């Protein structure tokens, strides 16, 4: 039998206020029979290191020790490998010096005759050491025989560490959990350290590389943004964010980008005017390929006006791409972390097409050649370039075929020269001819830019990964604001399903998480055949009125309902339209319905409403049967 996860967490909480001396140095001395009233040759720092390796090094891939005792600095979870020679040595020779017989600079140690009373005086707030809870931690990996009683655990601890009667009476609390709690202490399987680490949100030690391929699983905003407090818990694949203008969809995406990349694309988030000094915070959680989440809390530092991140890094995210509504893009390549090339790049609309460069030390270097140069170069070297991949992605993201009355497949044409341009310009084939990309429609340009940057980012990542001798990431996060921008309704209905499989054109084992803001009922309707409740979610930002003039923004997670038709989506709680008609038609119908409820409706009133209905409603509108009968009863014939 092994201790349960619940008992381990309970015991860790109970002993965190114990001074580390009692949990490490004292037990090291006891298990090694340090004498009382005399001294022996005792290399205590080496003995402590052995003890720490045995009981306080739960992550065998790390040389750091878990900081069980955290009465101070609760955000620090790990102790350096040299802790016995530095931290513990100071504690032994200063705080607890009176308990030892020790000549400075030697390895001669022994207990003073009155060491128990000295140690008793050092107990925090006279609180004794909870012996059973300390035993739970020390024996967390021990397989106890079936039928073991809690007293057996305590007795094993006391015997193992040779706790004397004097020590027992003055230093330890030997109480046990109530009998009714005994069943919750043991279970048949051992709790892994990874499970404990996940449940307590403990970060990795600093010598363990961050987990890779991270996606966003939690984002909490407090005292910042449109909502006083907001929690966003995205799913692993598709996350659609809806809501009225001005409620914070773009802001939520910006904060998601920052949580993943550590950089803002433009102006950093600023706390709300009504936020207290210590209130603003951004909490996020990134889950890497191992499945272990790492939660990070960032507070706003008013003096420097920045969001401060802890030293411990969360899992490294997968490749990131962010398409902003204004035509700008941002890319984060985890393979470039620590290199001379910036891991995070922000492209204006012009940068996407013409390239991005930076000047360092008076020298200019290109961070991106831009779509125009890359496209033409790739096309002229199709065997050794990603041009075929680009063609596949363009085909996948294209509008419906010509039989639908749209442009059809976005197929590259031959580059041409245009006036005032010395560069060859890529072209795209339309049914009516070959068009230079710089003259293409806004919708075509946005999708072409998205396709190019997806391919470019992946190719750059593969090249950089090869240079640093590491495999490419297997996860990608794509953030898109207003995915439907500039697109015809036919195209809006296709773009999201197309994106769901675009990773297949890049790599067979690449998985993508999407964070997408939209105002389009067509985009939501297009997800109906693809929606998977285990992998996808829909979110809705809503303004809840407190009074006539005040309200608060809330992020809801409504169930995904298959409405079937676009007008049904418009009348859903997501878009909150009472009628999928013009405002004038809506008002005419509302007036007609109210008039039908009156007992004394006049001929003139019915005639006036009928004229408006005839003006604004289609001849086959489903409201006519209801109104026609009522109108005839009041002498109005249609």
Can you describe what's shown?
With 638 residues, this protein is of the alpha+beta class. It has 20 helices and 27 strands. It has four domains: 198 residues, no CATH class; 211 residues, P-loop containing nucleotide triphosphate hydrolases (Rossmann fold, 3-Layer(aba) Sandwich); 123 residues, no CATH class; 51 residues. Strands 18-17-16-24-25-12-26-27 form an eight-stranded mixed beta sheet, with helices on both faces. Strands 11-10-13-14-15 form a five-stranded antiparallel beta sheet, with helices on one face. It has a three-stranded antiparallel beta sheet with strand order 2-6-5, with no helix packed on it. Helix 1 crosses helix 6, helix 6 crosses helix 7 and helix 13 packs across helix 14. 35% of the residues are buried.
| Overall spatial form | globular
**Low-confidence sequence ranges:** none
Specify the structural class.
alpha+beta
What is the CATH-assigned architecture of the largest domain? 3-Layer(aba) Sandwich
User: Total helix count?
Assistant: 20
At the fourth level of CATH, the homologous superfamily of the largest domain is P-loop containing nucleotide triphosphate hydrolases
Q: Which CATH class of the largest domain is shown?
A: Alpha Beta
List the helices and strands and how they pair.
Elements: E1 2-3, H1 5-15, H2 20-31, E2 40-41, H3 44-55, E3 65-66, E4 78-79, H4 87-95, E5 100-102, E6 108-111, H5 115-121, E7 129-130, H6 131-138, H7 150-160, H8 165-171, E8 172-173, E9 186-187, H9 193-199, E10 215-222, E11 229-232, E12 238-243, H10 249-261, E13 281-287, E14 293-301, E15 306-308, E16 319-323, E17 329-332, E18 344-347, H11 349-354, E19 356-360, E20 363-368, H12 371-380, H13 387-397, E21 411-412, E22 427-430, E23 433-436, H14 442-467, E24 475-481, H15 489-500, E25 511-517, H16 521-527, E26 537-545, E27 551-556, H17 566-570, H18 583-596, H19 603-616, H20 624-633
Parallel strand pairs: 7-8, 12-25, 12-26, 16-24, 24-25
Antiparallel strand pairs: 1-9, 2-6, 3-4, 5-6, 10-11, 10-13, 13-14, 14-15, 16-17, 17-18, 19-20, 21-22, 22-23, 26-27
Helix pairs in contact: 1-6, 2-3, 5-8, 6-7, 13-14, 15-16, 18-19
């Amino acid at each position: 039998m092994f201790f349960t996860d619940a008992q381990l967490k309970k015991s860790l909480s109970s002993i965190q206020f114990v001074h580390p001396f009692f949990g490490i140095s004292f037990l090291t001395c006891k298990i090694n029979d340090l004498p009382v009233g005399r001294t022996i040759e005792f290399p205590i720092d080496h003995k402590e290191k052995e003890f720490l390796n045995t009981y306080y090094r739960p992550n065998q891939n790390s040389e750091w020790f878990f900081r069980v005792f955290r009465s101070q600095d609760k955000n620090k979870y790990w102790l350096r490998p040299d802790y016995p020679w530095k931290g513990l040595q100071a504690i032994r020779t200063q705080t607890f010096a009176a308990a030892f017989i020790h000549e400075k600079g030697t390895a001669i140690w022994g207990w003073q005759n009155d060491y128990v009373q000295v140690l008793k005086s050092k107990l925090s707030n006279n609180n004794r050491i909870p012996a059973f809870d300390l035993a739970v931690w020390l024996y967390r990996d021990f397989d106890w025989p079936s039928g073991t009683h809690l007293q057996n655990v305590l007795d094993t601890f006391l015997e193992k560490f040779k706790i004397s009667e004097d020590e027992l009476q003055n230093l330890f609390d030997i109480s046990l959990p109530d009998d009714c709690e005994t069943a919750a202490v043991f279970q048949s399987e051992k709790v892994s350290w990874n499970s404990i680490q996940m449940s307590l949100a403990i970060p990795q030690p600093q010598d363990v590389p961050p987990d890779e391929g991270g996606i966003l699983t939690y984002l909490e905003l407090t005292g910042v943004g449109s909502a006083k407090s907001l929690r966003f818990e995205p799913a692993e694949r598709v996350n659609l964010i809806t809501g009225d203008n001005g409620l914070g969809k773009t802001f939520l995406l910006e904060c998601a980008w920052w949580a993943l990349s550590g950089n803002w694309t433009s102006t950093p988030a600023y706390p709300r005017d009504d936020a207290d000094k210590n209130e603003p915070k951004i909490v996020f959680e990134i889950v890497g390929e191992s499945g272990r989440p790492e939660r990070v809390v960032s507070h706003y530092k008013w003096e420097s006006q920045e969001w401060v991140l802890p030293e411990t890094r969360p899992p490294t995210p997968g490749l990131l791409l962010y398409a902003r509504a204004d035509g700008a893009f941002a890319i984060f390549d985890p393979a470039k972390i620590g290199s001379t090339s910036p891991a995070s790049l922000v492209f204006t609309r012009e940068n996407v097409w013409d390239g991005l460069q930076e000047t360092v030390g008076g020298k200019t270097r290109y961070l991106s050649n831009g779509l125009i140069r890359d496209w033409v170069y790739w096309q002229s070297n199709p065997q050794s370039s990603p041009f075929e991949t680009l063609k596949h992605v363009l085909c996948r993201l294209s509008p419906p075929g010509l039989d639908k009355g749209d442009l059809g497949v976005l197929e590259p044409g031959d580059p041409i020269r245009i006036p005032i341009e010395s560069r060859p310009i890529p072209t795209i084939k339309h049914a009516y001819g070959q068009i230079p990309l710089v003259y293409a429609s806004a919708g075509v340009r946005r999708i072409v830019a998205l396709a190019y940057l997806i391919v470019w980012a992946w190719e750059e990542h593969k090249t950089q990964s090869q240079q640093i001798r590491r495999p490419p990431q297997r996860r990608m996060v794509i953030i898109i604001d207003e995915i439907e921008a500039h697109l015809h309704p036919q195209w809006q209905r296709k773009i999201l399903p197309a994106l769901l499989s675009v990773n297949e054109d890049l790599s067979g084992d690449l998985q993508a998480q999407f964070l997408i803001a939209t105002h389009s009922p067509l985009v939501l309707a297009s997800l109906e055949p693809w929606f998977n409740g285990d992998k996808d979610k829909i979110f809705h930002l809503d303004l809840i009125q407190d009074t006539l003039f005040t309200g608060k923004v809330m992020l809801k997670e409504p169930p995904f309902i298959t409405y079937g038709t676009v007008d049904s989506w418009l009348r859903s709680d997501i878009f909150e339209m009472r009628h999928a008609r013009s405002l004038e038609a809506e008002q005419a119908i509302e007036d007609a319905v109210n008039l039908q409820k009156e007992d004394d409706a006049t001929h003139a009133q019915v005639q006036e409403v009928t004229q408006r209905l005839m003006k604004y409603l289609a001849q086959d509108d489903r409201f006519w049967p209801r109104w026609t009968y009522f109108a005839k009863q009041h002498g109005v014939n249609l």
